[in-house]
Amino acid sequence: MFWRNMLLFNSHVDVTVTFLLLLFLSLFGIGSSSAAPFYIDTYCPKNASYNSNVTFETNLKVLLATLVSNVSMSGFYYTFMGLGTTSVANGQFLCRGDASAATCQDCIATAAKEITRLCPNKTESIIWYDECTLYFTNHYFSRTGIEPRAMLSDDRNISASDLDSFNRTLFSLLNDLAEEAANSQSAKKFATGQSRFDGSSPQRTVYALAECAPTETSTQCEECLKNAISTLPSCCGGKQGARALLAHCDVRYELFLFYNTSGTSDPYKSKQLSWSERYKIIEGITQGISYLHEHSRLKVIHRDLKPSNVLLDSNMNPKISDFGMARIVAIDQYQGRTNRIVGTYGYMSPEYAMHGQFSEKSDVFSFGVIVLEIISAKRNSRSAFPDHDDLLSYAWEQWMDEAPLNIFDQSIKAEFCDHSEVVKCIQIGLLCVQEKPDDRPKMAQVISYLNSSITELPLPKKPINSRQSGIVQKIAVGESSSGSTPSINEMSVY
């Protein structure tokens, strides 16, 4: 449905049929096999309806499509469409902090579809799932108020003999988590924890989480969470599990472990992957992009390839995701051109960033950046290389100094990997980020390179001046009308 909406609202899309891309997605296995989101409740106010506000309805449709297309590892996005007091549509989604990117994507796509079905002709609504919350409004929702809200509780009660000990333990834990989430130094204001309580029955454990939208200040977040906690006694006192969900925050507790306990940020995990796992990921991404470019009736140019748009399953098999910026072109069409530069800083090819020219070779450039990031476990940013412009310039310098392994992630012990295989992948990465599109290989050639020895590969040429490219890309992204913003480049495990 999202791609259909994009066809309706984006005049730059090159084809009028939608089933082709859906076919690509199903054949290639792109997407998630996760269970359907668990629906909790909706807020559909009776006094917030519209009958003939065509402008607001149009803004709302574009808003929901934009929310769906901006799911990333941050698990949060806020934007608005339109101007004025009655026609503007503000919207936001927040995925649970321990949800995978695939789970988040599924939940937001479902929420965007269901919210207008369950709450038709409304100027504001909220839909809550176990995995995410999504809302829209032509006004605003209080950042700390307890209305509107959704409450859900377990039917089972804590035994009377255990209730005092349970309540003391529970509310102490929830208040601690509220402070922890509010003062989180990460991109997410999310905290989980557990605590044991005593009683006449054997000692038991209560598990809880607290979460705020990342845009809340520490004070707003803590106030919102503590207000949510304050609603639990009247609604769910003595219950074995309950949750309070507001517009900007939520809390939950259970007597069973209901959240992901890994406690490790994604793919930080990327730095712990073995070389064989990384090589497998590179091979899988290569096959995925090659399918989109070469093995379909119409060629798909992704235009926003980056690690956060690569989903990894439990077996480290990669899937290409997020086709919100993709373009479909005829199989014999070499390139296209657009006046709307969309994408992510650090991954856009120079010809696309500067002239709006996109082709399969612009995807190849993005792929080359991803390969070098996988090898080095570092971002393509100047901050990661104080003495260089970015990862590309550093990799090129090491290549010219005949020391390419200097860019290899030092957390992997050298004796546990095939050095020639690493060097080959570095060479492939550099071949893909060459300045001129014609110098870059096609993905079919990359597949061949992965099966060849180093001596059979062509020698790369110097990438574009990284400082110049970086300035141009930053300007292009900043002036884009797509609403795209630079995103965290991390692969997502689902």
From TrEMBL:
Query: What SMART domains does the database record attribute to this sequence?
Result: S_TKc (SM00220)
According to UniProt, the name of this protein is: Cysteine-rich receptor-like protein kinase
Q: Name one GO cellular component term.
A: membrane
> Which keywords label this protein?
ATP-binding, Glycoprotein, Kinase, Membrane, Nucleotide-binding, Receptor, Repeat, Serine/threonine-protein kinase, Signal, Transferase, Transmembrane, Transmembrane helix
Q: Identify the domain of life.
A: Eukaryota
* Record domain Gnk2-homologous: where: 38-141, 146-258
Cite the SUPFAM superfamilies for this sequence: Protein kinase-like (PK-like)
Q: Which organism is it from?
A: Glycine max (Soybean)
- Provide the gene name from the record: CRK82
InterPro entries registered for this protein in UniProt: GNK2, GNK2_sf, Kinase-like_dom_sf, Prot_kinase_dom, Ser/Thr_kinase_AS
Q: Which CDD domains match?
A: Gnk2-like
Starting at the broadest rank, the lineage of the source organism is: Eukaryota, Viridiplantae, Streptophyta, Embryophyta, Tracheophyta
Molecular function, one GO term? ATP binding
